[in-house]
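Table 4 source record.
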Amino acid sequence: MTRRYLRILLVGSFFTLSACAQQHEVREMKESVSTLNTAMSKLNQETVKITQQNALNAKSSSGVYLLPGANTPARLKSQVGTLKMSLINVAPNADGTRATLRIQGESNDPLPAFTGTVEWGQIQGTTESYQEVNVKNQLISAPASVLAPSDVDIPLQLSGITPEQLGFIRIHDIQPTAQ
């Protein structure tokens, strides 16, 4: 009787342990699927922003648009050469939004000192028919670079708008500074 009881106890324990292992594996699988869904949703949102940014830049006759969330640089042909611009470190602060405008020269020459204008605001409508709303602007300036290829990070303070409200940033009128 003792052996029979022990055998039943071992078989029951085995099934209990295997059920726990399966539940643990199912839980891990659910977590993996949830993580994958979150990543796919983020990629879909980024794809939409990239598509919008490209459409706006295709229609722009002066300047270049950068959309928060696109995480993709845009190129601007300017009086100081072709520049690759991107928006990084977009975050809220007390006055609205802070961000960094990264400008990279694409030639083998250092960038000269230059100035430009940054506009920001919201976009209403579609990329086919849109309107810029609550637009503000500020002048930027960058010192001459010593090294080539050149990278310049310009801190931006975008007042009056939260990162969630920020629809676009447009950079235009890049001019070399007289030295």
